[in-house]
Amino acid sequence: MSFERTLEYLKSLLIELIKLPNETEWLEFKHNRAVAEEIGEYISALSNSAALYGKPSAYMIWGVDDKTHDVLGTTFKLSQTKIGNEELENWLLRLLNPKINFRFFEFSINSNDIVLLEITSAFKHPVRFQNNEYIRIGSYKKKLKDYPEKERELWRVFDSTPFEMHTAVEELDDDAVIRILDYPAYFDLLDLPLPNNKAGILKVFESEEMIVKTDTGKWNITNFGAILFAKQLSDFPLLARKAVRVILYKDNSRIETIKEQGDTKGYAVGFEGLIDYINGLLPSNEVIEKALRKNVLMYPELAIRELVANAIIHQDFFITGRGVMIEIFSDRIEITNPGKPLIKTDRFLDTPPRSRNERLASFMRRIGVCEERGSGVDKVVFQTEMYQLPAPLFEVIEDNTRAVLFAYKPLTKMDKADRIRACYLHACLKYVNREHMTNASLRERFGIEPQNSATASRYIKESLKSGVIVLQDPDAAPKMRKYIPFWAVENT
User: What is the CATH number of domain 243-409?
Assistant: First the structure.
């Protein structure tokens, strides 16, 4: 079962909407009038009102009488409506802030042409059109600023409703829920017995707030249930772009793609398969571990697992049109998620994580994808040191967070930035383990022979000069010196 907008679905939706006794705050009927500026204002008003009234979508429909709700047909043609040389959809999207999802559908019913505009409910903050926010008061479109009580109520909705509890799809019967959610995976992952009937399964999902009973006796599936247990994320149009993408490139640039695949399953259902797929694309590397030479994957599986889990859990779902992306190059792997981090990147290793998506994070911990304590970055740094790899890089790119693991390179090929980053993260790792970085520990980290301790000293001086580490005791003799990360001074 798919919730792509098929002709059958659109016709049944229209029939249900015209049954309503009146236009609502989230529904507008038009016959032929289609003025571009008015459409933009209606998108703002209907989207904001949908949020206020707990509706996942709002609708504007041409070809229906707004009083009688008779289907009349319309002369409005989307393809023939342009602003200058710009298509109407592009023009509207450009002037909306934020750029929410909306879609026009053109179809016929009983030989009457219909245009249906489906508009995503506002989230996080009110939708503006040409720098003005609108709201519906009854069936009338008004400026939000003129109704301060509505504005306060709308902000309360945004503040109190996390992404997970928004509705992904609404008004499904029991069978539809069972068909599109991978319910056996839920019980397998939690090692629970499978209920012996449909009602028992639905009761468990309802207790998890993955589905919510509606006033009509049907079910709404929440984003929480859909993003974790969708058999196919494409069944949920607003979540389809949140599928994790994996891209394999030919070399160290994005010029030539060898393979690209999106993991279409919910995160809980598909996580293990996703990790297996990524590892299947990675090259191997020869390492020497306590005099034992062996071939292992270029990147530690545990590090990949932790970084992918972190990207999934900490992404900003309110940034539309983008999801987690994993890019594999010949010399590195980049894991990017939408949303700036809630803590500074240079404190990833020591600071307990803060998640935008607490329900999602909690459930992923319950199924063993990540642990209750810490962010897993300490494991990533430890693993890269053990694998003799350059230190990972954590950075913010516009409104995205990116983690980079680098392929093996000898110390002589590492540049100054590589060395300082490795030195800093090594000091952080030692500190959180209640130890200290020393010349000897840094030599071990880099594989420097004891007789070359001056090399390690030079790298420590580089890091001291950059300010990422400090001496624990400035008065200590040279051979007794210990080093801590810059932020640890506050804790001493």
Answer: 3.30.565.60
